[in-house]
Amino acid sequence: MAWLTFFFYPSLYGQVTENSTGTSAPEIVFEESLPRLDPSSPPQFIPGKGLFLGEITEKEMGIQIEAAVEKEIAPLYFGESQVYRASWEKTSEQSGQKEGFAYSTSFIDAKDSEKLNVGQRVLVKSKQGNSEATYEGKIFFIDKELIPVIGKAELILQIADPKQSLQAGDWINFETSLGLVATWVTVPESAVLYTASGCFSYLFLGHGRYLRKPVEVAFVSQGIAAIKKGIEKGQKVVTHGAKQLWLLELSLSQSGGPSTY
Question: What is the spatial distance between Cα 88 and Cα 166, in angstroms, rounded to a whole number?
Fold first, then answer.
């Protein structure tokens, strides 16, 4: 019966080709088997399958892994601004400015100005001697009249400064969210490799197997990369040692075979 099954259903076992006598003969095509690794196995690379590392090599390379997670996150805008009015200076009612607040000005890209809003919270940092002071502030005004002339908009910040430590002429750094908060699949920025061939991450598939995967990064915010395409929630990525894996893969692929690390 086994012979009959093979005769009538050769595709279950392999492809059928014509032999020298003109009759059909089965050609069995086996999928390339994955390496069986013991702790001391040398690194191996199989195109399309990825890198295979033994436990000893993994420890020597300091591989660290983390699962991709979903987070509510927004890109951050970082800028520099100059104080033009100190908090102790008197202001007119017409200006809308208040005592107790310092005001600073900067010029930002027109496209960025479209993603910011008056009243939006701003975190301000200022170097004072050997230390750094932080302040709470908000976007006081966005003047877009200059966009047709210089392609930029003026951004005015209002900064709470009850101790009157900021003076006119001081330069400050500020950060604020650029656009709306949304849910993204995220990984640590260290999991993303930026190469001439594009952005990649290494997925950990278990049993010493690492597969390089192209990814699209929407933005990076405070060390977290929001992934647009290429990584799914729950997939494990290499967060430490990705660059070493990339160099190892290049070495093995160029040498055409297994190599010791």
Answer: 10
**Residue 59 CB contacts under 8 Å (≥ 6 apart), including other chains:** none
Among 250, 191, 249, 244, which Cα is nearest to 60's?
Answer: 244
DSSP string, 189-212: GGG-EEETTEEEEEEEEETTEEEE
C-alpha Rg value of the chain to the nearest Å: 30
| Nearest by Cα to 106 from 139, 148, 128, 149 | 139
pLDDT band, very low/low/confident/very high, at 66 (cuts 50, 70, 90): very high
CA 25 to chain centre: 52
Lowest mean pLDDT among 115-124, 142-151, 181-190, 228-237: 142-151
The answer to whether 207 touches 164, Cβ cutoff 8 Å, is: no
